[in-house]
Design a protein that fits this description.
The chain is of the alpha/beta class. Helix content is 40%, strand content 13%. It contains five helices and five strands. The chain has helices at residues 12-24, 43-56, 59-67, 89-100, 118-123, and strands at residues 2-6, 28-30, 72-75, 104-107, 127-128. Strands 2-1-3-4-5 form a five-stranded parallel beta sheet, with helices on both faces. The N and C termini lie close together (9 Å).
Length: 136
C-alpha cells in the first residue's frame, strides 16, 4: 500500500523510523520532501523552518501533490505541547485532503481530545492502530 506519513514536523526523526518500518512490512511510504531540512534540528529551528516552508515553499500544496495516487495516510499523533496524541492544524488539513481523495486514514494513537478537531477527525472514521503498524 502507498502510504503518506503525516504529523507535526517536530516528529521528523520518528517519521523516518516509521517509514523504514512500513517499508519492511512491504508498503511504499513517503513524507514531504521538505522534511530533509528538519533532520538534526532542535524544536526552535524546526519551527522556524516550518514557517519559512509554509510561506516561501508552498509546503501545503507540495504535500497535496505528493498525496496524489496514495492509498492512505498514517498520522503520527504523538504527545506534543502537553497534549496527548496531538494533531495540529496542518495535519488536520492533510487528514481532510486524504478524506476527500478517498484514502484510508490511520492514526498511530487514539483521537486526541482537542475541542477544535475531535469531531472532524471522528467524522472521517480513521483506523486507530494503537501503535501497531501490523494493523495496516
Amino acid at each position: 500500500m502507498k502510504i503518506g506519513i503525516i504529523g507535526s514536523m517536530q516528529f521528523t526523526d520518528k517519521m523516518l523510523e516509521v517509514k523504514k518500518e512500513l517499508e519492511f512490512l512491504g508498503h511504499e511510504a513517503f513524507l514531504t520532501k521538505l522534511h530533509e531540512a528538519m533532520i538534526g534540528k532542535n524544536e526552535r529551528e524546526i519551527e522556524e523552518i516550518k514557517i519559512y516552508q509554509k510561506n516561501e515553499k508552498d509546503a501545503i500544496r507540495e504535500f497535496w501533490r505528493e498525496m496524489q495516487g496514495a492509498e492512505a495516510v498514517l498520522v503520527l499523533n504523538y504527545d506534543k505541547n502537553n497534549i496527548k496524541h496531538y494533531i495540529g492544524g496542518n495535519t488536520l488539513m492533510e487528514i481532510g485532503f486524504a478524506h476527500v481523495l478517498g484514502q484510508k486514514i490511520f492514526l498511530i494513537n487514539p483521537i486526541p481530545d482537542m475541542p477544535y478537531c475531535k469531531t472532524e477527525i471522528e467524522a472521517v472514521k480513521p483506523v486507530i492502530l494503537n501503535g501497531d503498524l501490523n494493523k495496516i
